[in-house]
Amino acid sequence: MQSPRERSEVRPRAGWMVMGKRGRPSALEVCRVLVVFLSLFPSVSLQCKILKCNSEFWASTSNSGPEEEFCTALRAYNSCVRRTARTCRGDLAYHSAQHGIEDLMSQHNCSKEGPTSQPRARTSLPPPPPPLLPGSQERSDGPEVCHYERSLPRNTSPPNYTHCGFFGDPHLRTFGDDFQTCKVEGAWPLIHNKYLSVQVTNTPVVPGSLATATSKLTIIFKNFQECVDQKMYHAETDELPAAFADGSKNGGDRHGANTLRVVEKVPGQHVEIQARYIGTTIVVRQVGRYLTFAVRMPEEVVNSVEEGDNQDLYLCLHGCPANQRIDFRNFRARAAEAQSAGRTRSSTGTHGFTYQSAKAKCKERLPVEDLYFQSCVFDLLSSGDINFTMAAYYAFEDVKMLHSNSNRYHIFEKDAFMSNAAQRGKDLLSLFLINLLAVLLWTECCTVHL
């Protein structure tokens, strides 16, 4: 058996299919093409209805039957997925389903040609697994390799846990504690590594405004050793499931299945996904019409990237691209200036809130004027939606639950300014080195010519 630390070096047996036990050889190529496509056309998946295809297929196969019936349902599933091709080209769930269908057809020797049938409605979800007692060592508790902290070598320092949050209009707190306000309309990847992938879809909050908010979230947990099967969790506005897309609440039939669990905290409002085999906790909420995301993840898992994968596009790791960022300090300054001039509405788009009334409303839930407070003010001024006050409040509550350093709960504007200044310094240094190299090459060429 491999040592736990080797897990970040060994490629897990994961692909991009929803079902199936082994990734396809082209998974990396598919991922690369998908990421480039998302960066060029980020809004393609706004009308994607792949979740309906998934649920219909799983409903039609919930009860075991003859192989012919399974193949018939699989062909119907394939037809449904193909009908979504135009609107789902940039969606992780769509590409996952495509590869899953191919794998299942191969495994069950199903022909692509043949009859299809309408899926039967599922009568009820399977019962949830029994809760684990503290210290339980039953079979469902799984082997040590399925418990991240237990699998670490003895006498090693505790793992360093990091946090990423995404909420509001939207605001991003990266694994490096950078805090940004972004546009990022359409489908964007938050996380992608050897163990899981997370994608969000953001839609405009107010017509004509740069502000967007998350209306759809897809998480794919890739299969890992004897611990868990590949699972997909998908949420949309007014659909915050208490189970994975296949109706299950844990990681499948393997020995460590219960080290991946969906736990419903508040029906339709708050779900927690515990992935103990990678030491990760994810919190998904619906606040008002939109979703929020927060994660606690070991640094080792964050950095377990696929070989040759370009991580620059993944928001939780490197933040939003520079051309997608919004400077809400300027927005706030214009709102304050408009109010001082006696205007309650202006080109800044206050939508019923003045700068002072927005501050007063946010102060009720966020007494410390940090960037969570400032993001709340920005959201009220840009949208007028009072629910964004609670989105910022819950985002900060999730930080207190998930962040490993209590001294870093609050982030202030000076922290963001120093972070941006440091990045600008790096950019200037890179530019200087490139120019220096060009001068040296030009000098060398001239010397040789002479």
From TrEMBL:
Belongs to the repulsive guidance molecule (RGM) family. Residues 107-144 are annotated as: Disordered. It comes from Seriola lalandi dorsalis. One of its GO terms (cellular component) is plasma membrane. This is Repulsive guidance molecule BMP co-receptor a. One of its GO terms (molecular function) is coreceptor activity. Residues 48-112 form the Repulsive guidance molecule N-terminal domain. It is a lipid-anchor; GPI-anchor. Keywords: Autocatalytic cleavage, Cell membrane, Disulfide bond, Glycoprotein, GPI-anchor, Lipoprotein, Membrane, Signal.
